[in-house]
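Standup notes
- DV: blocked on the single-chain target, sequence here:
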Amino acid sequence: MCQINPRSMPTIAGVTEPWVDAPETDRRKDKLDRGPFVKMAKDLLENLADSNDSTVFGLVGPWGSGKTSVLNFITGALDDSIHVVRFNPWSFDEERLQAELYAAIIEAFPAGSRKTLREKAVDVARRTTPIWKVIPVVGTGVSETVREFLPEKSWDSAFEDMAGTIKAARVKVLVVVDDVDRVQPKDLLLLMKTIRLLGRFPRVNYLLAYDRKSTIKALSLGLGGEEGDAQVYLEKIVQYPLDLPDPQQHFLQEIIDTALQPILARASAQSNGGTTPATRFESFYDKHMATTLTTPRACHRYTGQAVTFLQLAQGDVDPADFFAIIFLRVFYPDLYRRLPSWRGELTRKGISREVKATSKEVWSSRINDCGYKGDTIVELMEALASLFPHAFPDPFWGTNGGRFRVSDSEYFDRYFTFSLPAGDMSDAAVISDLARIRRGEVAIGHKCPETFDHPNERMQIQALKKGTRHTDHESDGQHLIDYLSAGLSRKDVDEDFRSTTMRLRSAWLASLLWHCEPWDKPAVEVFVEKFTRPVILGHCLQQNMNRSNNELAQRSVMEQSTPAPEHELFNVLTEIWNQQAAAWLLAEWQNTNSKVPIDELLAVWQYLVALEGLPKLQVETLSALEAGPLSLTALAANFVISSYAAGNYQALPSSLTLLTNQLENTVPPDQLLTLPLEEPADVPAAQGDEIPSAEQRARFAYEELMRWRQQQASRRSRDY
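- DV (later): unblocked, structure below
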């Protein structure tokens, strides 16, 4: 790619503002669609606030999920009958916490009743203070001093006295306590005890905001017990824990796109070949970043550093590689700091007989030494392999596309010149769902919402990858094939057949089919008919075609005389799919109102070519052209694509190309010259960023075919 001009990059004060971790107070600025949750919490608080009892609510969510903003939204939506007071447990030590909590509650009452409440609160508080803290002298006069401090009535009586006064005032109070999970264990335990014992006055309710995991850990330290005991303790304190819903993936994606896509798009527009920075970053994000960037704070923290440090880099870096490196810097700092020490291996030009790639075992050991364990090691190896392919035995993809790459030794150091250092899917859940499918407990057409059909696409991707990894082809057979094929066959035309989840599912299904025993032909026909979109099963079959070719190539290299074994099921599947795919494709070509994208039609055509189904398609297409159901112009329009997709990376969206080679492989050139060519309506061509309509594509196809015929006629006249 071309060098990025630092003058053309967004400035912090311009396109990209510095990120400040400040909560929102205006619900109109809610970018995470938390409105329904806020309304639910508001209604619950208002309904229970009338009760004479004291209720403790919990707003539960991980750090960085936006709890403080949601607190602001909830309290701002409450009706005026509820007096909201905020209490900050960070501000006070053990001696003052109880008094300050009482002061916060009393502040919500009318001025006329505050004096009486304050006196009664002092009366209650005195009974909770150890008596030796108020005895001025310890010695021979202790008995008389203690007698002076003995209360005239019990703690229960004093508490009931104050509770009655509060109840009579008929004031509804909501005490909001934020950042509960960040209080030290000793102070957290004191806060919980105070709310449980001293603060449960009638019509005084509490809303505590905390991260469940951190709070339970701190409570277990304060209690000196196990986390299970701390969880039970917390459940006794908080009657209504309200779990903040996870932000939907497209909201988090919007944070990333808003900050980074303008830079990636500008760099991609300057690309002159290979994969673009935008495409490479999208791949890296899908595979390695999405399961980590799961909260707004994590996304903002990452993008803020990525954009700021890119400006400091002053160009000469590939933005896709740079953003990937910054991700490692922010979330895997121990690994990031070690990368420069492996510079020679990471930036080698290639692998030869003399230079071997460092083994996976060595890389695994190195990453383990950085403090990472389990599946994280595999994920990080895959991430590094995508950035430094020559350093790994079998990288995910190579360094094609662009200059100034991090794997280039000349520019490597520019990615490590800064001095500032910067959730996963459960394997057990994946293995459990695999076992359920294997035992037939997941009915055909049903889903596994906790794993392979998780509503969060990134979590679903992780589950599919792990599912493939944990598949035992000897025991995971027909039930798993039924489950995967049912999920793939119900995908509608609006879902991109190239999406990551569909690719992972089809690759998994292809592997299962490859290891499967033969079926009878009726069963194969029923199976193929399930796929209303032939492109999906075609992708599976092409992967197995590649497997077959690789087996033949390996046997040829090994000079074995015995032929490779026949894969009977694959052969029968291919034969029947070719028949049905050819019929489907011809029907879509004839359907002027088809909703199937051109890219998908061409993909099916390409699979037919790869799977040797083109001859049948040629015969049926020519028959349809001669009989009349299909016009040559309509057929040609299905071979019109954007010039950008054809390889012209400077082309505008309106630029088009007719794939004449593919058209000639579908209809013999002699017939292309002689068949009637129906002239469509003369419509203006699309301009600039305009996406061409079906009519504009048809007109373009007609004009290109006319030009092609003239060229053919001219060439033949010269030959004669």
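- Follow-up: The CA atoms of residues 124 and 158 lie 6 Å apart.
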